[in-house]
Amino acid sequence: MQAKEIGNRGVMFTFEPQECPIGGSTVYLINGKNTIYLCDTHLGSASTDPILAYIQEKGWQEKDVVIFFSHSDWDHIWGAGTFPGATIVSHRQCRQRIVQRGMLELLRYGEHRQGDVKLRLPSVTFQTSIIFEEDQVEFFHAPGHTPDSACCRDYQDNVIFVGDLVERPAPTVSWHDVESFIETLETLKTMGAQAYVSSHSGLVEPDDLSHNIAFLHQYLETLSRPPRSPQEEIRQKEYTLLMFEDAIRQAQGEKFDYSAFQQELWQGLDCDYRLTLTELLNSVEHEELKTALESFLVQY
Ligand SMILES: [Zn+2]
């Protein structure tokens, strides 16, 4: 792990691809007056213990710790156990998603854990945004990569931590509403930050945001016609799945159970639901998937 100071009070902790099985990742820290803000926590105690050691080395251990989850994906939330006294802040949907899918993701992706993992739920949530006035630090909803995605804006240093919303060369689409994703990236661009920090691409530029926007327009275009490559086919399958998941969630409302949904869906296709999504999608035909999802919808 490398620590790199940016601005007057930011530190980027970067895990190199060789140290972490899922590729490079960055966790961002803001050293406030009486509070340390930690944006995401990576894969477990082995990821966050060195960050705690860094805080102690700097003599910041008396400060309160606020952990911000940029969204509920497992590779952002597993290290929170290292800071038992921290206040965890996220978008409301992020908390709901951890409740719904946290245990399943731990099962499905558990081989990637680094050290101990203790799932922790956010205790403070926001709908649009929340500002920590003393330090001029804001967390705001930025739907796109997932519906619960959010960013951290440090007004003093003019730095925005964007989580998984911006990536080089292209972001991952894990939510069907690609139009909202594009809108969010356009908004981020107009904010004119001095630096944008991405979870999987480190420091990114406004040009990267523009490239990501262009990619998403092209993504929408490929959905509207027959696939021309295996990658496009996987993309279409994934998109179908995202659409149906949302439809079922809306149909079931409060009763929606993500684990049961996943289990029934993939068992119906004779797949082990604990495989990774790519493995699952690779193993089924598009039509099979559509039929399974349609029959799933009919049940409710
Ligand atoms: Zn993610």
Q: Give the second-level CATH assignment, the architecture of the largest domain.
A: 4-Layer Sandwich
Mean of residue pLDDT?
92
**H-E string:** EEEEHEHEHEEEEEHEEHHHHH
Main sheet: strands, sense, barrel: 7 strands, mixed
Q: How many distinct beta strands?
A: 13
List low-pLDDT spans.
Answer: none
Bound molecules: zinc ion
SS-based structural class? alpha/beta
Biggest sheet, strands in spatial order? 1-2-3-4-5-6-7
Radius of gyration, whole Å: 19 Å
Q: What is the C-level CATH assignment of the largest domain? A: Alpha Beta
Q: Kindly give the count of domains.
A: 2
Proportion of beta-strand residues: 15-25%
Helix count equals 9
Question: What does this entry look like structurally?
Answer:
The protein is α/β, with parallel strands linked by helices and 300 residues long. It has two domains: 2-221, Metallo-beta-lactamase, Chain A, CATH 3.60.15.10; 226-298, no CATH class. It has helices at 45-57, 74-77, 92-109, 178-190, 206-223, 230-252, 258-268, 277-282, 286-298, and strands at residues 2-6, 10-15, 25-31, 35-39, 64-68, 87-91, 124-126, 129-132, 137-141, 150-154, 159-163, 195-198, 202-204. It has a seven-stranded mixed beta sheet with strand order 1-2-3-4-5-6-7. A six-stranded mixed beta sheet has the order 8-9-10-11-12-13. Strand 4, helix 1 (45-57) and strand 5 form a beta-alpha-beta unit. Helix 4 packs antiparallel against helix 5. The longest helix is centred in the C-terminal third of the chain and has 23 residues, at 230-252. It is globular, with a radius of gyration of 19 Å. 38% of the residues are buried. The mean pLDDT is 92. Zinc ion binds next to loops.
